Amino acid sequence: MAELVAALDVGGTTVKAALLDAELNALATARVPTAKSADGTALAEQVADVVSSLAAQAGTGSPGAVGVVVPGIVDEQARVARFSANLDWRDVPFGDLLENRLGLPVAFGHDVSAGGLAEFRVGAGKGCTDAAFIAVGTGIAAAMLLDGRLYRAHGLAGEIGHIDVGHRNVCGCGATGCLEAISSASAIARRYTERTGRPADGAQPVVDAARHGDEAAVAVVSDALDGLGHGLRTLLTLLAPEVIVLGGGLFTAADYVLDPVRDYLASALTFQRMPELRVASLGDEAGRLGAGLLALDLLRGR
Q1: Cβ neighbours around 66 below 10 Å, total
Q2: For residue 106, what are the β-bridge partners?
Q3: What is the pLDDT of residues 45-77, one digit of tens each?
Q4: Which of 74, 107, 138, 237 is deepest in the core (most CB within 10 A)?
Q5: Cα–Cα distance measured from residue 133 to residue 283, given in angstroms and rounded to the nearest whole number
C-alpha cells in the first residue's frame, strides 16, 4: 500500500491538517479550532477525530503514521512539550499520549523546526547543508541545518528571538532587549499602534503603510529591520549558515525589507561569511508539510 501520513500543524487557535502521500500531495485537508486542556487530552481526542475524518474524506484506510507539531519548547527526542504558552502546556508527554490514543506511530515536533525541515527539503532552502530558517510571526524562532542535519538540542536550540539586540523594550520572556520584542510581527503591530493609536493586524499592514510613506510605519519597520540585522549578525558569527530563509508576514514585501537587511549585514560583517538571503516559499503550509515529513521519516526508519 502507498505510504500515507496524517500531518497536523497545531496553533494556538487553529489546527491545520492534511492526509499526505509520499510526495506530500494532499489527499484530504481540514482546519478546525484548537481544542485545549492543560494535560493535552483534549487535543489528543481532537487529533484522533481529525485523522479519522481525513481518512474517510479521502476514502483510504488509516495512515501509516501521524505527524503533529506545536509551538513552544518541544523535546522531540523525548516527545514532550516542555512549555507552550499558546496551549497552556508544561511537560506534556504528547507524543506518547497521542500514540496510545491512536494506536499508530506518532512523530511529535516543534512547528518552526518542522517548517524549517520542509523549507530545507522541498522549499527555498533545498540543496543546502548549512542554513537557517527564521520564522517571524507572533514570536521569532529559527530552525538550523548544520552539516545537513537539523540541530535541535532537545528543543532549546534556535531561540534567536531572545538574542539581545540592544533596545530597552521588555520581552514576554522577562528579559530586556530581545529581538522578538522589536522585530516580531506582533511587536511591529503593537509599536505602530502605540505611536499612532491605529490598530494593525500583524506586520504586513504596517509594512504596506511604510511603503506608502507613513512616517510612523517607516520608523517602526526600520527599527525592526535594524534589530533583525543585529540578530542575524550574531547568528552568522556563531554558525555561519550559507543561506538564511526568512518567513512570515514581514517578508511578503520582500523587495522593501530584504535590501535594508542585506545592506546592514554588508556594512556590519567583517570576517563573517555573507549569507544568501531567501524568502520562504512554502508560506503557512510549511509547518504542516514539515509534520508530514516527520511522519514519513518515522515510517521509513530515519
Answers
A1: 29
A2: 66
A3: 999 999 999 999 999 989 999 999 999 999 999
A4: 74
A5: 12
pLDDT band at 264, cuts 50/70/90? very high
pLDDT > 80? residue 37: yes
| Of 99, 81, 98, residue with least CA distance to 90 | 81
**What is the CA angle 177-179-185, rounded to 5?**
125
**How do strand 106-110 and strand 65-70 relate by DSSP bridges?**
parallel
> What pLDDT was estimated at residue 302?
74
**Cell 504596506, residue located:** 208
CB 72 within 8 A of CB 85: yes
Q: Grid coordinates standing for 204?
A: 504586513
Does the pLDDT at position 252 exceed 80? Answer: no
Bigger pLDDT: 45 or 302?
45
Q: Which residues pair with 110 in a beta bridge?
A: 70
Nine-digit cell string for 70: 506545536
Rounded to whole angstroms, the Cα distance separating 155 from 152 reads 5
163: amino acid identity, one letter: I
The answer to pTM > 0.85 is: yes
User: Using CA atoms, how far apart are residues 52 and 249, in angstroms rounded to an integer?
Assistant: 33
Closest CA to 115 of 69, 183, 149: 69
Can you give the length of the chain in residues? 302
> Which cell is 222 given?
526600520
